[in-house]
Design brief:
Helix content is 31%, strand content 14%. The protein is an alpha/beta fold. The protein folds into two domains: 14-99 and 279-297, Rossmann fold; 101-270, NAD(P)-binding Rossmann-like Domain (Rossmann fold), CATH 3.40.50.720. The chain is elongated, with a radius of gyration of 22 Å. The two termini are 13 Å apart.
């Protein structure tokens, strides 16, 4: 899609706001978009506007005939990928690619260190009022010099690589042009494996039972999309003690169902898709949208324009 095609030309346009914001944030946004007008809408509410800020329901997008640009409040956009208006270029869609790199990378590092240093066990022991002390010390190790596999080399894993520098880790990087044999060889030597890939046909089920069993004694981190992992297989290797542990932020179904095996898995930190969160998250999203709105009004390329052909 030509990034210049879907830019604004009218002086005044209707903007639909589809994000839960505080009243003060809505007021700030309404004042900042002048001369455009802002209307708060529900995700499934039938509307007619040129611009939407937020994740409008796909079926609503299809009925909004005047729509020209959607600024998502997420990185993921899979639910929209089959819409004709996006495929034919009549509607532009931008996401928040790269927006969450810093908080997600810090969550990954926090999870890995928690498992290495036994924090997960210590929390449970505190709840049980059990003092284990010295008996736990031989199980605690350090991240220093660990072999780390970064599967996906976008903004999140580039950030985590920076955070790992003081630990002297040996890094194996796999971008979109990865080779299966090289990945398998790296997994055999891995102490930590971090998956941050988006949902695409090429990434579905990459970490199946066979590959998870290659990572004997490693910590597996799932922070891209849950579709990259065979969740039942991951639960099995954790139950069997094949893996040292796992840090899982994304799952195939969210919220996680009551009967899911992850609730009972040992050595699994389940961060419930919170890794991208921060206290200033909504204000930063507003800032991102307003900067892109200036580009739209000025006929300039939009930042983080979704490319359906690539899948991200």
């Amino acid at each position: 899609m030509d990034q210049h095609v879907q830019t604004g030309r009218r002086v005044t346009m209707e903007i639909g706001l589809c994000i839960p914001l505080l009243d003060a944030q809505v007021s700030r946004l309404r004042a900042a978009v002048v001369p455009h007008t802002l209307t708060v809408v529900g995700a499934e509410e039938s509307i007619e506007c040129e611009i939407v800020f937020g994740n409008l329901a796909p079926k609503t997008v299809e009925t909004c005939k005047s729509l020209r640009w959607i600024q998502l409040e997420s990185v993921g956009f899979g639910e929209y990928s089959s819409l004709p208006c996006l495929k034919n270029g009549s509607v532009a869609m931008t996401n928040l690619a790269g927006f969450f790199a810093v908080p997600v990378a810090e969550s990954i590092l926090a999870g890995v260190l928690a498992l290495y240093r036994g924090m997960d066990q210590l929390i449970v022991l505190k709840e049980q009022r059990l003092w284990v002390g010295d008996l736990l010390r031989p199980q605690i190790t350090t991240l220093q010099g660990a072999n780390v596999v970064l599967f996906g080399y976008g903004s999140i894993n580039r950030r985590i690589e920076l955070l790992l520098q003081p630990f002297g880790c040996r890094i194996a990087r796999f971008s979109s042009q990865w080779h299966a044999g090289e990945l398998d060889a790296a997994l055999l030597e891995a102490d930590v494996v971090i998956s941050t890939v988006p949902h695409t046909p090429a990434t579905v089920g990459i970490f199946d039972a066979r590959r998870l069993r290659l990572m004997k004694g490693a910590i597996f981190c799932s922070f891209g999309r849950g579709s990259a992992v065979d969740e039942d297989a991951l639960a099995s290797v954790l139950d069997e003690g094949v893996l040292r542990g796992a840090v899982v932020d994304v799952t195939s179904e969210e919220p996680l169902p009551d009967g899911h095996r992850f609730w009972r898995c040992p050595n699994l930190l389940l961060t419930q898709h919170t890794a991208g969160g921060s206290a200033d998250e909504l204000d930063r999203k507003i800032d991102f949208f307003l900067a892109n709105l200036q580009r739209f009004d000025g006929g300039r390329p939009l930042e983080s324009l979704v490319d359906l052909r690539r899948g991200y």
